[in-house]
């Protein structure tokens, strides 16, 4: 059994798990903690270090024995984070990979959270075996995106920050926007369709995979989504970011 630890840093919580990469399943229970406020690099690193230690102890692995992949809500290039979406501004232009490696006690693979979720879907979920252009989206605190062309990741797309009608896409149709705007499912779906249609007009994907926290309620809104291509629910659902981060650790993938 090939196992790695995947960490998914979100705007409200940090999720972590040991992942069996052959089965594409979690080993034991996932662990989580609230995202620190403010979500500074040091505070997040300390929280991640605690989660990793607890996971290794809980699954019987010696400390430092498992590869670790970390997905963060930021553009990541060569271990440096260049944006700070839903985290502290101190992440901008920080050598986050080195800082997090010190907290975890070993080298880590660091990648964008949307890319991590997309990687899980393309390897093990709804995008598996798909060719052409596939767009994977996560609807949660923001809107994460991952674009694949013939199976190859185009890293750091950050489509959730694309302006549509004077507002960022994630301010229109993220899970947080739905709560803050008090939208029921038909009203939210209409806003989400604006986003999907705009993304499609720019990229012309053959398939759009919808994941993130809202995907657990697909039965409430899936039939309301409309785009000029197939739109399907994520196969890995809320664990996609964790699984994708673990896959990145195993494959040594980093933008």
Secondary structure elements and pairings:
Blueprint: E1 3-9, E2 13-20, E3 25-34, H1 41-58, E4 68-72, E5 76-77, E6 80-81, H2 96-104, E7 108-112, H3 113-124, E8 133-139, E9 143-149, E10 152-154, E11 163-164, E12 167-168, H4 169-173, H5 175-181, H6 185-203, E13 207-211, H7 218-221, E14 230-233, H8 240-251
Parallel strand pairs: 1-4, 4-7, 8-13, 13-14
Antiparallel strand pairs: 1-2, 2-3, 5-6, 8-9, 9-10, 11-12
Helix pairs in contact: 1-2, 3-8
Element-level helix/strand string: EEEHEEEHEHEEEEEHHHEHEH
CATH-assigned fold name of the largest domain? Nucleotidyltransferase, domain 5
- General form: globular
Distance between the termini: 26 Å
Runs in which pLDDT lies below 50 for 5 or more consecutive residues are: none
Proportion of residues in extended strands: 25-35%
Write out the strand line-up for the largest beta sheet, numbering strands in chain order. Answer: 3-2-1-4-7
Number of strands: 14
Q: What's the average pLDDT?
A: 95
CATH 2nd-level architecture of the largest domain: 2-Layer Sandwich
Q: Characterize the biggest β-sheet.
A: 5 strands, mixed
Q: Using the CA coordinates, give the radius of gyration.
A: 17 Å
Features:
255 residues, Nucleotidyltransferase, domain 5, five-stranded mixed β-sheet
Overall description:
With 255 residues, the chain is an alpha/beta fold. It folds into 2 domains: 126 residues, Nucleotidyltransferase, domain 5 (2-Layer Sandwich), CATH 3.30.420.40; 108 residues, 2-Layer Sandwich (Nucleotidyltransferase, domain 5), CATH 3.30.420. It has 8 helices and 14 strands. A hairpin with a 2-residue loop joins strand 5 and strand 6. The two termini are 26 Å apart.
